[in-house]
Fold this protein.
Amino acid sequence: MDRRDFLKAAMFSSLGLGLACTGTPVMARGIPAKSLPGGGPGRCFVLPKSEVKAPLVDLFKIGPGPSSSHTLAPLRIASNFREAVAALPRDTLAKAARFEAHLYGSLSATGRGHRTDRAILAGLLGQKAETCDQKVMDALADDKAVFQTTIGGKGFTVGHNIIVWDAVEHHFPFSNTLVMRLMDTRGKVLFEREYYSTGGGFFAWKGQPPARRGEPKHRFGNMAEFRRLSQDTGKPLHEIMMENEMAILGVGEAEVNRHLDMVIKTMVDGVDLGLTETGLLPAPFEMHRKAKVLFDKAKAMGEADGFMQRISSYAIAVSEGNADGRLAVTAPTLGSAGTMPALVYVMKNHLKFTQEAMRRGVLAAGLMGLICKTNASVAGAEVGCQGEIGVASAMAAAMMAYASGADLATTELAATIALEHHLGMSCDPVGGFVIIPCIERNAFGALKAYNAALMARSEIVQQHWEDFDRVVAAMLETGKALPPQFRELGTAGLGVSMVDC
Ligand code: SF4
């Protein structure tokens, strides 16, 4: 079948006349190079080989702000190191005297603004991310204070003096590297782990054994394979995602739904709380909260302007809470934690979607987030803000489309449009704080997501050239081409132009 015949068949399919039971043609909608001037760019798209293995509980994590890679992951890393130390032989523990935490790359450059030091202390002191709220983090702010803890029956004293703000430029394989050490009284290293904060609160360490988890029931690595899977099995997106989550975690549907409901509730609560707050955000420069102001002023606006401004206020409400260290959901990161909640709030309170529709929407968002994480990155330190707000916007667009009843092709298109129009966005937070430009960026991510879902539902999907895998590949290539100073170091772009000497 040539391309023209295929497109015709695909359009009939969208009208219910095709053969595919899901209405989702398995196709790669690439533009033929020969149709372009000069025969195209001289190279073309190659679908990466990969497999999505992470469950949604890893993608949608709850933890304290302001940053998933610089706050949440270091907390989880320190907590993991604490567990590893507790399991050391007794004679090793008997010699242990102190900890050291060496921060490299952007963790070192911007960790103070992201509360990385407090997060490491919290993890070593036994705090868990899901319950470590801003009060706990505030109590760890004093850099003269010391804290006692017992690990494996051995008492330790920890304070800010264990944190070493090490080299920004380094040769570790991952930008955000954290080396945790346990030392004896003479400074000899008894045990150490080289950890990598890989974005979105995920972490790994050198020599880490494979996780003891179940295998996904349905194998896919990208959207092309997911489309084929859906077509071959006749299963809709939410069923495949639910079955994979159950298989990987070894839990039942009720348990997965419990997690999805917690994600939705944390997001909605974050908006509700943020809309009541006024005053300054914790920062070394004066930064007024504005979610409530925007929300209140929206009431006096016309319907269209008021709705747009409400969406902005919802996103900013959560982002301001995150900047203040409140618990939020990584979607896919904490820097981008306000984008998806804005549309969750719209779905719940404006569109009155059922809880089941909202869960399905979150599953669709999760699919897009996991594909981005697997084939590119969701870390600003790796691919710039396109990997945080861009991916968040794609997830939110897919959620809105799928929860509204869109099919897989339309859901993919919504995510594709949203991500495509964030390509090239650098990460340049002023002073390393997740405030400027991060807070407002969440509002724009949410508005673009809403628009993308509307456009996708109005288009004839098969007439659209871009597909999600191609845009994810473009994001990765663009991110790699970004100079390092535009990847979360805060030493370029707005991180410089906003600062007076
Ligand atoms: S600029 Fe974007 S990627 Fe960078 S910290 Fe802010 S939200 Fe995250």
Remarks:
- Residues 65-205 form a domain with the 60s Ribosomal Protein L30; Chain: A; fold (CATH 3.30.1330.90).
- The CA atoms of residues 104 and 167 lie 5 Å apart.
- Residues 1-26 have pLDDT under 50 and may be disordered.
- The two ends are 64 Å apart (CA to CA).
